[in-house]
Amino acid sequence: MHSTHLLLEEPIRMASILEPSKASFFPAMTKIVGTLGPKSRSIEVISGCLKAGMSVARFDFSWHDPEYHQETLENLKAAVKLTKKLCAVMLDTVGAEMQVVNKSEKAISLEADATVVLTPDKGQEASSELLPINFDGLSKAVKKGDTIFIGQYLFTGSETTSVWLEVSEVKGDDVVCVIKNSATLAGSLFTLHGSQIRIGLPTLTDKDKEVISTWGVQNKIDFLSLSYTRHAEDVRQAREFLSKLGDLYQTQIFAKIENIEGLNHFDEILQEADGIILSRGNLGIDLPPEKVFLFQKAALYKCNMAGKPAVVTRVVDSMTDNLRPTRAEATDVANAVLDGSDAILLGAETLRGLYPVETISTVGKICAEAEKVFNQDMYFKKTVKYVGEPMTHLESIASSAVRAAIKVKASVIICFTSSGRAARLIAKYRPTMPVLSVVIPRLKTNQLKWSFSGAFEARQSLIVRGLFPMLADPRHPAESTSASNESVLKVALDHGKAAGVIKSHDRVVVCQKVGDASVVKIIELED
């Protein structure tokens, strides 16, 4: 993979662009998060998604009940067993989301230049003149001239089921709007988004808390995607809530940045969260179009330097209904990778899209091509400079392992870890080769029974670019004698060989603890 590394700054033979890419065990170093829903919940389709490269499954609680999602999750577990591919679980909260309630589910036609009233009276029937919403405080939050967007949930922004409104007057609790474009709203639920309007709804709603403390606890979720994160305090409150729920104290919180408020508090949110999701659908409405790319590049840079995973959403909307992405979308995916994204999140494309497996496969192929021209040398220097001196012990070991691997053209870096931190730090320097993270389980007790930790840590690395976990045998502690370390290393090397990333005569860089010392060693494989 790394041997074919090109740089866009160097002359490329145009004919070489057309050479077919070699198939590899890992479709790409960049990870893919797939949202499971009506079109992607059978064992067969989920197995296809896993084989195509999905490593995190997202369950969106904005729609459907926990029982529905539980059925989907049971199918995911069956698909994981069938394909022998690990997959992490992400629970996505509803959060401070405003919605139009259409009980009858009849299609609603809205004509340009006509007026429509938004009312908090949910008892009313939705019609072309009146739309009931789930939020009482809209009339206090908006003023004349403000823009409001209504679209089918997970809208792509291009279909005729989305409408732009302009506030013309506020009457008591009702908001009267002028319709800016003709559209037909179909379905029972539409998302309502006020552009640059502050909404006084809680980030973790009572419904969210109930779902997390029942469905989340029962299924030991790996990630919590915190919708509409606007302040660092939102993340702190969510973490405090999770800390009281058994195993969920280990769940990682990914803050979803969806509006100007979250953007303004980005730095402090990044400090508190375990990772960031750039929700470009809603951000694209809140930000002027010409500013969207700037936010993406700045936010991804900050996440990269902090060593925290960054996830980009809304990349191939048109694949919801088509087999091929548009040219702009294909370029957009590649640019997300070149900008430093760890993972690409697919929403409508896999949830209600016609081609979930093909979409994952296409995105994976684009990511793999972009990774070949990622300027690792420049990125490495930038990261080392940002970290500064003196480096911490772990940071120094991680950067040395990556530098050594690149100098000796290693085919893989193997890292022994129990918390996953060392492996994540190595991945932060974006080596051109895969990092096999060998997670050594730790024995723990609550005075009543023994249990092993490690499964959480392994699955949580499935969202980090370039990191591929494997669980070691619990009989091998992470810091044990050289004999047991050698046997775990042999298992890891065999795993790499079976996966096709290691061949005889390859060099491998190994990062491990021996006693109190951390060691980076280079080994050359025999036949």
Automatic annotation (TrEMBL):
Protein name listed in UniProt: Pyruvate kinase
Keyword rRNA-binding found: no
Keyword Nucleotide-binding attributed: yes
Broad enzyme group: transferase
Domain Pyruvate kinase barrel residue range list: 30-360
Gene3D superfamilies reported for this sequence: Phosphoenolpyruvate-binding domains, PK beta-barrel domain-like, Pyruvate kinase, C-terminal domain
Pathway: Carbohydrate degradation; glycolysis; pyruvate from D-glyceraldehyde 3-phosphate: step 5/5
Domain Pyruvate kinase C-terminal: 395-515
EC number per UniProt: 2.7.1.40
InterPro entries named among the record's database cross-references: Pyr_Knase (IPR001697), Pyrv/PenolPyrv_kinase-like_dom (IPR015813), Pyrv_kinase-like_dom_sf (IPR040442), Pyrv_Knase-like_insert_dom_sf (IPR011037), Pyrv_Knase_brl (IPR015793), Pyrv_Knase_C (IPR015795), Pyrv_Knase_C_sf (IPR036918), Pyrv_Knase_insert_dom_sf (IPR015806)
Record Pfam families: PK, PK_C
UniProt keyword terms in alphabetical order: ATP-binding, Glycolysis, Kinase, Magnesium, Metal-binding, Nucleotide-binding, Pyruvate, Transferase
Entry's Gene Ontology molecular function annotations: ATP binding; kinase activity; magnesium ion binding; potassium ion binding; pyruvate kinase activity
Reaction(s) catalysed (UniProt annotation): pyruvate + ATP = phosphoenolpyruvate + ADP + H(+)
